[in-house]
Design goal:
By secondary structure, the chain is of the alpha+beta class. It has 3 domains: 3-77, 3-Layer(aba) Sandwich (Peroxisomal Thiolase, Chain A, domain 1), CATH 3.40.47; 85-165, 2-Layer Sandwich (Alpha-Beta Plaits), CATH 3.30.70; 172-255, Malonyl-Coenzyme A Acyl Carrier Protein, domain 2, CATH 3.40.366. The chain contains 10 helices and 9 strands. It has a 3-stranded antiparallel β-sheet with strand order 5-6-7. Helix 3 (105-121) runs antiparallel to helix 5 (150-158) and helix 7 (193-206) packs antiparallel against helix 10 (227-247). The longest helix has 21 residues, at 227-247. The relative contact order is 0.10.
Length: 256
């Protein structure tokens, strides 16, 4: 299960369908459910079809349903047509972000000044190429800013506008139901005293509230399929993993 990333596959598939003007078939459909009123217009595609041309943008919806009742729905629309190569060059830097960073505010201002001078010396450079290089070839340092034009670079070089020092500490996110598997955490229980100690504390907190053993249900497929078991088990495993990471010196700025 993709846990927090569940649904992103549907988004990627839908974006690709919009871009390529096709409606992909639904895989593995051998027979349609009898409980759906198909004649009303709902249709399952059993073959890939071209997206019908219309006088409106192509749109599609992606839904994600959680076991707890969460229902997220996003509507995607085709993007605007891109300008041709010549238009892109003539358009200048408008709308293309140029990320900058430095160890100190002074270093950030110096980088902005160097980039502004470089762009004046190389007016043939495409703004999008400059943005790509800055994004993919530079290390993100503590002081950061974003510029959208050479004039903004000049202003950054002489003042502190848009500079910000980021808190780079990590955040721990606990996944929900669906991320479990039979045998999870068993190896850590036998190899990490820190993890095992945290799990033992959780087991002690559960004592008297549940009728099962935390250590035993980790290898019990049937038990892990029960909501009243898997939810506290996942909580215990995540809390214990957080304790383990903290023992390594990884201290989160938040836990979610």
């Amino acid at each position: 299960h993709a846990a927090a990333a569940a649904g992103i596959g549907g988004v990627i598939k839908t974006v690709s369908a919009l871009a390529h003007r096709v409606m992909p078939r639904t895989l593995h459909v051998t027979e349609q459910a009898s409980t759906v009123d198909w004649p009303t217009g709902v249709r399952v595609l059993t073959e890939t079809l071209p997206w019908p041309e219309a006088d409106r943008p192509r749109r599609a919806g992606v839904s994600s349903f959680g076991v707890s009742g969460t229902n997220a729905h996003v509507i995607l629309e085709q993007g605007p047509d891109l300008p041709d190569e010549a238009s892109a060059v003539d358009a200048g830097p408008t709308g293309v972000p140029w990320p900058l960073s430095g160890r100190t505010p002074e270093a950030l201002r110096a980088q902005a000044a160097r980039l502004a001078e470089h762009l004046r010396d190389r007016p043939d450079l495409r703004p999008v190429d400059v943005g790509l290089s800055l994004t993919t070839t530079r290390t993100d340092l503590a002081c950061r800013a974003v510029a959208f034009s050479p004039d903004e670079l000049d202003r950054l070089a002489t003042q502190d506008r848009a500079m910000r020092t980021f808190d780079s500490r990590p955040v721990f996110v606990f996944p929900g139901q669906g991320s479990q598997w039979v045998g999870m955490a068993v190896e850590l229980l036998g190899s990490s005293p820190v993890f095992a100690g945290a799990m033992e504390e959780c087991a002690g907190a559960f004592e008297g509230l549940v009728e099962w053993s935390l250590a035993e249900v980790l290898g019990d497929e049937v038990a892990l399929g029960r909501v009243e078991v898997v939810q506290p088990v996942l909580f215990a495993v995540m809390v214990s993993l957080a304790r383990l990471w903290r023992s390594f010196g990884v201290v989160p700025s938040a836990v979610g």
